[in-house]
């Protein structure tokens, strides 16, 4: 019973942490930007507003889904196995991708160049972190398994079909 309890604790901590980070990056920060510098009115249903709304919904759904996948499959902050199922079978970095998608959606929805600039800066930071630290660390940790995975699964633009294996 103690093992199950500790897995539930790990699951809760992982989900709470990931959701808190997502809220700060894609909720509180854009809200702060928009509070100081409001975008144009969103009342009209222009194509750009609808596209922004779609990206926000898709990004938020994707982020929650990949946080769930990471917590359920990995069960730790440094999982003992390569998480390559669920959302991770479509794109190597679905949490970053989903947050950036949400931010671009918010920039379009609220017609705010400042939020769009914030999205670009967040993407640049994520890309730099991934290419300089995270992926080299994963190659060291998982070796050829990660190299095969990264050869089949794209870094940023998700493939729209899951072949079931990589």
What do these coordinates show?
Mean pLDDT is 81; it is low at 1-5. The chain is mainly α and 166 residues long. The protein is globular, with a radius of gyration of 17 Å. The protein has helices spanning 2-36, 47-74, 94-109, 113-142, 144-152. The protein has one domain (2-152): Four Helix Bundle (Hemerythrin (Met), subunit A). Helix 2 runs antiparallel to helix 3 and helix 3 (94-109) packs antiparallel against helix 4 (113-142).
Provide keyphrases for this structure.
disordered N terminus, Four Helix Bundle (Hemerythrin (Met), subunit A), mainly alpha, 0% strand
Mean pLDDT: 81
* Helix-strand makeup class: mainly alpha
Strand content: under 5%
Largest sheet: none
